[in-house]
Amino acid sequence: MSEKDAYKQSDGLQVVGTGLPRTGTLSLYTALGILGITPCHHFKTVMDDGFPYRQSQRWQQACKTKDAKARRDVIRQIYSDGGFKSGVDYPTSHFVEDLVELYPDAKFIHGIRSSPQQWRKSFNGTIGRVRSSAFYYSCFLFPQQRFSLQPLLGVLDACNIRNFHAGLVSSNDDVEVYHRHNAHVRQVVPASRLLEFDPKQGWGPLCQFLNVPIPTDEYGNELDYPHVNDTEKLNKVLNMMIAVGCVVWVAAIAATYFIVARLW
Ligand code: A3P
Question: Is 201 in the pocket of ligand 1 (CB under 6 A)?
Answer without folding.
Answer: no
